[in-house]
Amino acid sequence: MDDEQAGAAALARTRIGAAREQPCTLVVCRGCCCGDSRKHPGIDHDGQVARLRAAADESGGRLAVRTSTCLGPCGQANIVVVQPSGAGRRRGGRPTWIAWVRSDDSTDDIATWAAAGGPGLTDPPPALESHVVPSPAEARAPTRTRRGGRR
Question: Among 43, 95, 101, 125, which residue's CB has the most CB atoms within a 10 Å radius?
Answer without folding.
Answer: 101
